[in-house]
Amino acid sequence: MLKKIILFIVLFNTLIFFSVNSAESGGMPQLNPEFWISQIFWLTISFGILYVILSKFILPKIRNNIELRKSQILDNVETAEKQKTESDKKLKEYEELILKSKSEAKNYFNEARKKIIEDLDAKSLVLDKELGEEIKKTENEVSELINKSPEKINKIAIEISSNIVKQLIGEEVNNSSISAIVDDLSKKNRFKYYGN
Amino acid sequence: MATNPMHQFEVYRIGPEIKINQIDISFTNASLFMIISCISILLVFNLGSSKKNIIPNKIQLLAELSYSFISKMISDTAGIKGKPYFNLIFSLFMFVLFCNMFGMLPYAFTVTSHIIVTFVLAAFIFIGVTILGFVKHGLGYLKLFVPSGVPLILLPLIVIIEVISYLSRPISLSVRLFANMMAGHTMMKVFGGFVISLGIVGGWLPLSFSVALTGLEILVAFLQAYVFAILTCIYLNDALNLHH
Questions:
Q1: Cα–Cα distance for residue pair B161/A100, rounded to 1 Å
Q2: Which of A61, A135, B152, B154 is 20 to 30 Å from A119 by CA-CA measure?
Q3: Would the pTM of this model clear 0.80, i.e. be above it?
Q4: What residues of B are in contact with residue A22 (Cβ under 8 Å)?
Q5: Per-domain residue ranges for chain B?
Q6: What pLDDT shows up at residue B199?
């Protein structure tokens, strides 16, 4: 403000200089009271009309507009919040539903697995039993075969050896003596031939 | 003479001389620009308030922003009690602002560069605020001149200073606006004169200075309107909320 005042003083001096130089005017026109009354009159009228029209017609409208917008925005915000809580609730419900169905599916799966495992166990048990029986049966057969085989082999051996002896000496040999020798040998070497 | 920087402030009659009881109330260029300012204010704000859009267009935004600007200014300085005087302060601010801004147009007349106009406005505010103070507080309004917590010996001096400062309010208010407008416009005119007299060789420097001054003067035009309005609010605050 001080700067402005100093500037003003400087300018004022230049103005005085200018006005002294220009002979026609007498300084500042502002200080010439010729049109003061007229200016006051027209200022009063124009400002008065401006004030009346602004305060009666225009400013209330602007105020209404602003308030309308404010209330509308508040309403919108309120409804938006309501909808947000609603959607949150829905989302929660949805998530719960998903969780529930997931656990249900897991249960089903577990049950099915259990059932299958049980079934498998039972079937394998049955199978094992059958297999065991079969194995026993075959084992019996095998052992029977093994038990029976020395006699047959002896028989064959007796026949072969009697044949060989016949061929060698051209004479019938008593079967009983040959069988006695074969029995004796086979009894001696039984474990060597059959192993068990 | 066109080179006289004070020539732009001269008031001249437009149309016939109107006299009522020997008092000259002729229509002048000052009256013309007052009326142009008022009509533009009314046009702008009527356009800005006629449509009720939720999302405002540019002119509506302008009107509503200035409304909330003044409203905030009043509530900041004078509080809630200043609300009933909103219309008056809004009109004052807009009138001074538009007069200042129209003065920035070339060949236009600046209404607020005349001491009589600003003084009438300031005196109107001063008288109004004083009457309001006495109506609200009765004779207690005189306590405004007696600050609390002052030593008894200094009190007569302080009271005298307070009274003088109170009485000089309309003068300071009016001279501030008038001097700012006049000084700025005179300076622009002086530099404009330099441009012409220095010609194409040396005229560029004052021309650039003149361009810068135009920006500054637009700022000053707004600022002075703002200062005028905010000082009115402060005076109003003194009358409404007696602090001393």
A1: 85
A2: A135
A3: no
A4: 1, 3-4
A5: 7-240
A6: 82
- Token readout for A96 is 């719960």
User: Treating both helix axes as pointing N-terminal to C-terminal, what angle do B86-103 and B204-240 enclose, rounded to 10 degrees?
Assistant: 170
> What is d(CA B170, CA B177) in angstroms, rounded to the nearest whole number?
11
**Per the structure block, which two tokens stand in for A70?**
């404010």
Question: Between the CA of residue B53 and those of B42, B170, B181, B215, what are the distances in Å?
Answer: 19, 41, 38, 34
Supply the ipTM of this predicted assembly.
0.89
Tens digit of each residue's pLDDT (9 = 90 or more) over B115-131: 999 999 999 999 999 99
DSSP string, B31-66: HHHHHHHHHHHHHHHHHHHH---SS--HHHHHHHHH
User: Is it the case that residue A14 has pLDDT exceeding 70?
Assistant: no
Residue to test with chain A: of B31, B52, B189, most A Cβ within 10 A = B31
Residue of A nearest to B114 (CA): A30
What are the pLDDT digits (tens) for A174-196? 777 777 887 787 777 766 665 55
Cβ proximity of B30 and B11 under 8 Å: yes
Low pLDDT (below 50) residues in chain B: 1
